[in-house]
Amino acid sequence: xxxxxxxxxxxxxxLYSCSDGVDNNLxxxxxxxxxSDNGSSETTLYTYDDNNIVSIDxxxxxxxxxxxxxxxxxxxTLNKVNQEKGTVEYSYREGRLVKADFINKYVMNYLYNTDxxxxxxxxxxxxxxxxxxxxxxxxxxxxxxxxKDERILDNIGVGVIAKYSIGFDYDDKKSPMLNVIGFNKLxxxxxxxxxxxxxISTEINSVEQNDQVITAAKYYKxxxxxxxxxxxxxxxSETGNLNNTTPVYIKSQFFY
Length: 256
Prior knowledge:
Layout: H1 2-19, E1 31-36, E2 41-49, E3 52-57, E4 61-68, E5 71-79, E6 85-93, E7 96-102, E8 106-112, E9 118-125, E10 131-142, E11 145-153, E12 160-170, E13 198-209, E14 212-226, E15 232-241, E16 248-255
Antiparallel strand pairs: 1-2, 1-16, 2-3, 3-4, 4-5, 5-6, 6-7, 7-8, 8-9, 9-10, 10-11, 11-12, 12-13, 13-14, 14-15, 15-16
Protein backbone atom coordinates (compact mmCIF):
# COMPACT_ATOMS: atom_id res chain seq x y z
CA UNK A 1 0.00 0.00 0.00
CA UNK A 2 2.84 2.37 0.85
CA UNK A 3 4.45 1.70 -2.56
CA UNK A 4 1.18 2.43 -4.38
CA UNK A 5 0.76 5.69 -2.42
CA UNK A 6 4.29 6.81 -3.36
CA UNK A 7 3.67 6.08 -7.03
CA UNK A 8 0.43 8.06 -6.88
CA UNK A 9 2.25 11.10 -5.50
CA UNK A 10 4.85 10.89 -8.27
CA UNK A 11 2.12 10.61 -10.93
CA UNK A 12 0.25 13.58 -9.55
CA UNK A 13 3.44 15.64 -9.46
CA UNK A 14 4.19 14.87 -13.11
CA LEU A 15 0.61 15.61 -14.12
CA TYR A 16 0.65 18.97 -12.32
CA SER A 17 3.92 20.01 -14.00
CA CYS A 18 2.72 19.07 -17.47
CA SER A 19 -0.64 20.77 -17.05
CA ASP A 20 1.08 24.00 -16.02
CA GLY A 21 3.16 24.06 -19.21
CA VAL A 22 6.48 23.36 -17.46
CA ASP A 23 9.16 21.48 -19.42
CA ASN A 24 10.43 18.50 -17.39
CA ASN A 25 14.00 19.06 -18.68
CA LEU A 26 14.16 22.16 -16.46
CA UNK A 27 16.41 24.14 -18.76
CA UNK A 28 16.70 27.58 -17.16
CA UNK A 29 17.83 30.93 -18.51
CA UNK A 30 20.98 32.05 -16.65
CA UNK A 31 22.19 35.12 -18.53
CA UNK A 32 21.09 37.57 -21.22
CA UNK A 33 23.51 39.89 -23.03
CA UNK A 34 21.84 42.71 -24.96
CA UNK A 35 23.71 44.71 -27.60
CA SER A 36 22.07 47.86 -29.02
CA ASP A 37 22.54 49.22 -32.52
CA ASN A 38 25.09 51.74 -31.17
CA GLY A 39 27.32 48.93 -29.89
CA SER A 40 26.69 49.30 -26.16
CA SER A 41 25.91 46.13 -24.19
CA GLU A 42 24.19 45.15 -20.94
CA THR A 43 24.23 41.85 -19.06
CA THR A 44 21.37 40.49 -16.96
CA LEU A 45 21.82 37.51 -14.62
CA TYR A 46 19.08 35.08 -13.50
CA THR A 47 19.29 33.00 -10.31
CA TYR A 48 17.05 30.16 -9.14
CA ASP A 49 16.18 27.81 -6.31
CA ASP A 50 15.39 24.65 -8.29
CA ASN A 51 13.04 26.09 -10.92
CA ASN A 52 11.71 28.88 -8.70
CA ILE A 53 13.19 32.17 -9.85
CA VAL A 54 15.02 34.08 -7.09
CA SER A 55 16.27 37.21 -8.85
CA ILE A 56 16.87 38.98 -12.14
CA ASP A 57 19.88 41.27 -11.78
CA UNK A 58 20.59 43.81 -14.51
CA UNK A 59 22.61 46.98 -14.93
CA UNK A 60 19.86 49.40 -13.94
CA UNK A 61 17.61 47.29 -11.72
CA UNK A 62 17.42 44.14 -9.65
CA UNK A 63 14.19 42.15 -9.28
CA UNK A 64 13.65 39.72 -6.41
CA UNK A 65 10.85 37.13 -6.24
CA UNK A 66 9.03 35.60 -3.27
CA UNK A 67 7.03 32.37 -3.49
CA UNK A 68 4.23 30.86 -1.45
CA UNK A 69 4.35 27.21 -2.42
CA UNK A 70 4.41 27.27 -6.27
CA UNK A 71 2.95 30.76 -6.68
CA UNK A 72 4.88 34.02 -6.99
CA UNK A 73 3.32 36.24 -4.34
CA UNK A 74 5.70 39.21 -4.26
CA UNK A 75 8.16 40.99 -6.53
CA UNK A 76 10.48 43.72 -5.28
CA THR A 77 12.29 45.85 -7.87
CA LEU A 78 15.31 47.94 -6.89
CA ASN A 79 16.18 50.87 -9.14
CA LYS A 80 19.97 50.92 -8.99
CA VAL A 81 20.15 54.48 -10.27
CA ASN A 82 18.11 56.20 -7.54
CA GLN A 83 17.90 53.28 -5.03
CA GLU A 84 14.09 53.41 -5.02
CA LYS A 85 12.17 50.19 -4.46
CA GLY A 86 8.84 49.11 -5.91
CA THR A 87 6.78 46.20 -4.62
CA VAL A 88 4.06 44.14 -6.27
CA GLU A 89 2.01 41.69 -4.20
CA TYR A 90 0.03 39.00 -6.03
CA SER A 91 -3.15 37.35 -4.70
CA TYR A 92 -4.63 34.09 -6.01
CA ARG A 93 -7.85 32.14 -5.70
CA GLU A 94 -7.74 28.41 -6.50
CA GLY A 95 -4.34 28.92 -8.16
CA ARG A 96 -5.50 31.75 -10.43
CA LEU A 97 -4.30 35.34 -10.19
CA VAL A 98 -7.07 37.67 -9.01
CA LYS A 99 -5.17 40.76 -7.86
CA ALA A 100 -1.83 42.49 -8.40
CA ASP A 101 -1.21 45.26 -5.88
CA PHE A 102 1.49 47.68 -6.99
CA ILE A 103 2.03 49.07 -3.49
CA ASN A 104 1.34 52.82 -3.18
CA LYS A 105 0.73 53.04 -6.93
CA TYR A 106 -2.25 51.10 -8.30
CA VAL A 107 -4.16 47.80 -8.22
CA MET A 108 -4.99 45.36 -11.02
CA ASN A 109 -8.05 43.09 -10.56
CA TYR A 110 -8.69 40.02 -12.75
CA LEU A 111 -11.94 38.17 -13.51
CA TYR A 112 -12.03 34.87 -15.44
CA ASN A 113 -14.62 34.47 -18.20
CA THR A 114 -16.18 31.25 -19.45
CA ASP A 115 -14.71 31.73 -22.95
CA UNK A 116 -11.13 31.61 -21.63
CA UNK A 117 -10.53 35.36 -21.71
CA UNK A 118 -9.72 37.41 -18.61
CA UNK A 119 -11.36 40.73 -17.85
CA UNK A 120 -9.34 43.20 -15.82
CA UNK A 121 -9.31 46.73 -14.44
CA UNK A 122 -6.68 49.14 -13.19
CA UNK A 123 -7.59 51.16 -10.09
CA UNK A 124 -5.63 54.24 -8.96
CA UNK A 125 -6.14 56.51 -5.96
CA UNK A 126 -7.53 59.99 -6.54
CA UNK A 127 -6.65 63.08 -4.46
CA UNK A 128 -9.38 62.04 -1.96
CA UNK A 129 -7.50 58.73 -1.47
CA UNK A 130 -10.32 56.75 -3.10
CA UNK A 131 -9.78 54.14 -5.79
CA UNK A 132 -11.05 55.10 -9.25
CA UNK A 133 -10.82 53.08 -12.45
CA UNK A 134 -8.18 54.30 -14.90
CA UNK A 135 -8.92 51.70 -17.57
CA UNK A 136 -10.48 48.28 -18.09
CA UNK A 137 -10.00 45.58 -20.68
CA UNK A 138 -9.82 41.97 -21.77
CA UNK A 139 -6.84 39.61 -22.12
CA UNK A 140 -6.88 36.91 -24.81
CA UNK A 141 -4.98 33.61 -24.90
CA UNK A 142 -4.40 30.83 -27.41
CA UNK A 143 -2.47 27.59 -26.79
CA UNK A 144 -1.04 29.00 -23.53
CA UNK A 145 0.18 32.13 -25.29
CA UNK A 146 -0.84 35.67 -24.36
CA UNK A 147 -2.19 36.89 -27.72
CA LYS A 148 -3.93 40.22 -27.13
CA ASP A 149 -4.69 42.94 -24.61
CA GLU A 150 -7.61 45.24 -25.47
CA ARG A 151 -8.46 48.10 -23.13
CA ILE A 152 -10.66 51.18 -22.90
CA LEU A 153 -9.52 54.20 -20.91
CA ASP A 154 -11.90 55.57 -18.27
CA ASN A 155 -12.34 59.10 -16.89
CA ILE A 156 -10.87 60.89 -19.89
CA GLY A 157 -13.71 63.32 -20.63
CA VAL A 158 -17.25 63.39 -21.92
CA GLY A 159 -17.63 62.34 -25.54
CA VAL A 160 -14.11 60.95 -25.83
CA ILE A 161 -13.41 57.26 -26.46
CA ALA A 162 -9.78 56.22 -26.01
CA LYS A 163 -8.63 52.67 -26.74
CA TYR A 164 -5.38 50.76 -26.59
CA SER A 165 -4.49 47.30 -27.84
CA ILE A 166 -1.42 45.16 -28.21
CA GLY A 167 -1.36 41.86 -30.08
CA PHE A 168 1.26 39.12 -30.41
CA ASP A 169 2.15 36.47 -32.99
CA TYR A 170 4.37 33.58 -31.92
CA ASP A 171 6.78 30.95 -33.17
CA ASP A 172 6.40 27.28 -32.17
CA LYS A 173 9.63 27.13 -30.12
CA LYS A 174 10.22 27.22 -26.35
CA SER A 175 10.25 30.41 -24.32
CA PRO A 176 13.41 31.04 -22.23
CA MET A 177 11.15 31.33 -19.15
CA LEU A 178 9.13 28.20 -19.91
CA ASN A 179 10.39 26.20 -16.95
CA VAL A 180 10.08 28.89 -14.28
CA ILE A 181 7.36 27.88 -11.82
CA GLY A 182 4.55 30.41 -11.45
CA PHE A 183 5.88 32.86 -14.04
CA ASN A 184 3.07 32.11 -16.50
CA LYS A 185 0.46 33.52 -14.09
CA LEU A 186 1.85 37.08 -13.95
CA UNK A 187 -0.36 38.65 -16.61
CA UNK A 188 1.05 42.14 -16.12
CA UNK A 189 4.19 40.80 -17.88
CA UNK A 190 2.19 40.23 -21.10
CA UNK A 191 3.96 38.01 -23.68
CA UNK A 192 6.70 37.04 -21.18
CA UNK A 193 4.19 34.60 -19.63
CA UNK A 194 3.74 32.69 -22.91
CA UNK A 195 5.20 29.27 -23.68
CA UNK A 196 6.44 30.37 -27.13
CA UNK A 197 8.37 33.42 -28.36
CA UNK A 198 6.78 36.56 -29.77
CA UNK A 199 7.69 37.21 -33.41
CA ILE A 200 5.59 40.30 -34.03
CA SER A 201 3.70 42.58 -31.68
CA THR A 202 1.67 45.62 -32.65
CA GLU A 203 0.51 48.43 -30.36
CA ILE A 204 -2.43 50.60 -31.44
CA ASN A 205 -3.69 53.72 -29.69
CA SER A 206 -6.87 55.42 -30.87
CA VAL A 207 -8.89 58.44 -29.73
CA GLU A 208 -12.41 59.12 -31.04
CA GLN A 209 -14.11 62.48 -30.54
CA ASN A 210 -16.71 64.39 -32.54
CA ASP A 211 -16.85 61.60 -35.16
CA GLN A 212 -13.11 61.87 -35.75
CA VAL A 213 -10.64 59.08 -34.98
CA ILE A 214 -6.90 59.56 -34.50
CA THR A 215 -4.82 56.38 -34.55
CA ALA A 216 -1.14 55.75 -33.85
CA ALA A 217 0.60 52.38 -34.16
CA LYS A 218 3.99 50.91 -33.28
CA TYR A 219 5.38 47.51 -34.13
CA TYR A 220 7.96 45.22 -32.55
CA LYS A 221 9.48 42.48 -34.71
CA UNK A 222 11.83 39.72 -33.55
CA UNK A 223 13.83 37.00 -35.29
CA UNK A 224 15.52 34.12 -33.45
CA UNK A 225 18.24 31.50 -33.59
CA UNK A 226 17.55 28.33 -31.58
CA UNK A 227 19.51 25.52 -30.00
CA UNK A 228 18.90 21.82 -30.71
CA UNK A 229 16.17 21.68 -28.03
CA UNK A 230 14.20 24.59 -29.48
CA UNK A 231 15.21 27.28 -26.99
CA UNK A 232 16.27 30.70 -28.36
CA UNK A 233 19.99 31.49 -28.17
CA UNK A 234 19.83 34.77 -30.09
CA UNK A 235 17.14 37.34 -30.73
CA UNK A 236 17.19 40.36 -33.02
CA SER A 237 14.53 42.89 -32.00
CA GLU A 238 13.28 45.61 -34.31
CA THR A 239 11.21 48.52 -33.04
CA GLY A 240 9.59 51.35 -34.97
CA ASN A 241 6.47 53.24 -35.92
CA LEU A 242 4.49 51.78 -38.79
CA ASN A 243 5.11 54.98 -40.79
CA ASN A 244 8.77 55.24 -39.73
CA THR A 245 11.38 53.79 -42.08
CA THR A 246 14.22 53.97 -39.53
CA PRO A 247 13.80 51.08 -37.07
CA VAL A 248 15.93 50.48 -33.98
CA TYR A 249 17.60 47.10 -33.55
CA ILE A 250 18.72 45.22 -30.43
CA LYS A 251 20.49 41.86 -30.33
CA SER A 252 19.96 39.61 -27.31
CA GLN A 253 21.99 36.49 -26.56
CA PHE A 254 20.59 33.83 -24.21
CA PHE A 255 22.69 31.52 -22.02
CA TYR A 256 21.27 28.55 -20.08
